[in-house]
Design goal:
This protein has 339 residues and is α+β, with helices and mostly antiparallel strands. It folds into two domains: 81 residues; 233 residues, 2-Layer Sandwich (BirA Bifunctional Protein, domain 2), CATH 3.30.930.10. It contains eleven helices and nine strands. A seven-stranded mixed β-sheet has the order 1-4-5-9-8-7-6, with helices on both faces. A hairpin with a 2-residue loop joins strand 6 and strand 7. The longest helix is centred in the first third of the chain and has 33 residues. It starts with a helix and ends in a 7-residue tail after the last helix. The structure holds zinc ion. Zinc ion binds next to loops.
Length: 339
Amino acid sequence: MINKINVLLVEIRDLKVNNSEEIEALRIKYLSKKGEITSLMNDFRHVAAEEKKILGQKLNELKEQAQKKINELKAGYENQSSSDDSIDLSRTAYPYHVGTRHPLSIVKQEICDIFGRLGFSIAEGPEIEDDWHVFSSLNFADDHPARDMQDTFFIQQGIDTLLRTHTSSVQTRVMEKTQPPIRIICPGRVYRNEAISYRAHCFFHQVEALYIDKNVSFADLKQVLLFFAKEMFGPDTKIRLRPSFFPFTEPSAEMDISCNLCGGKGCPFCKHTGWVEILGCGMVDPNVLENCGIDSKVYSGYALGMGIERITNLKYQVKDLRMFSENDVRFLRQFEAAT
Ligand SMILES: [Zn+2]
C-alpha cells in the first residue's frame, strides 16, 4: 500500500490539464466515492494496527496533495479563461427573439392600408366621451336602448360622461370641425356593458369610414365595399347588401361576403348559407350632417363600420373572442409569420 501511495503522490504532482472538463475528470478519478484515494482509505481499515500510524499519515498527505493540486489547476484555468485571449469574436451571436404584433393590430393595419390607398386618412378621438358625440348628434332617439345603463358604461351616474360605444363619435368630432370634402377612417377601442363570453366582450375594436362630398351616392359606397372585400379576403370574394337600420344612416344596409372557408358552397361556419356578415353601412342621415354644421342640401356622404375582431375571426378562424385579451403567448406567437 505504501508503494501505491508513493506512485500516486508523484502522479498527482505532475498532473497537467487542457480544460476544465479534464480537471473534473481528475477529481472523479482520485477523490470521488469510487476514486482511487477513497478506495485506499477503505482498504486502510484492514491494515495491521502497527502499520496504521505511518500509513494513516501518508494517506492524509496524499489526499491533501490531491485536493490542493486540483484546486490549483482550477484556479489556473479560471484565470486563463477570464483573459482576453479566450474571447471568440468569430462565434455566432445568441439567437435574437423578435416579438409579434397582436392579431388585432395586424388586421387593423391591413384595413387602414386598404382605405389609405383610396385616399382615406386616419382620425382618432377620445374613448371617454359625452352623450352628444356618442348618441344625440348621431340621431339616437332619447328612448333608444343603447342609452340604457345595461348597454353603456357611464363613468358617473347622472353625469353626462361615458365610455364610447362606437367610433362614430370620432366622425362627429371631425364633421364639427371640418367642412367637406371629408374622407376619414376611424380605428379604435369601444366599450359595451356585455357579459364576457366566447362571442361577446365588454370591450372590442372598430374601424369606421366616412366620406362626405358633393354628389356622393350609394353606388360610390358599393364600389368601395366591393374593393375592400376583394382586397381583404381575396379577388374571388363576392358581396351582398341587405337592408337594415341604424339611427345615423338612411338608407342603411348590412354587408355579407361570400364565405371564404367554403367559397360560398355552404359550411358550418357560414351556417350553410354561403354568406357571412361583416359590416354595417349606409348614407349619412341628413339630420346628422345638420347636427354637425354641414349643409345637407349641398353635401351627402356614406359611412361604414366594422368590428376588427369579426374580421380577424374570419381571416384566422379564432373561435373565442377572449383569446384576444388574455395575453397567452402560445396564441400570440402563431401570428409571428403574419407580422
Ligand atoms: Zn362557408
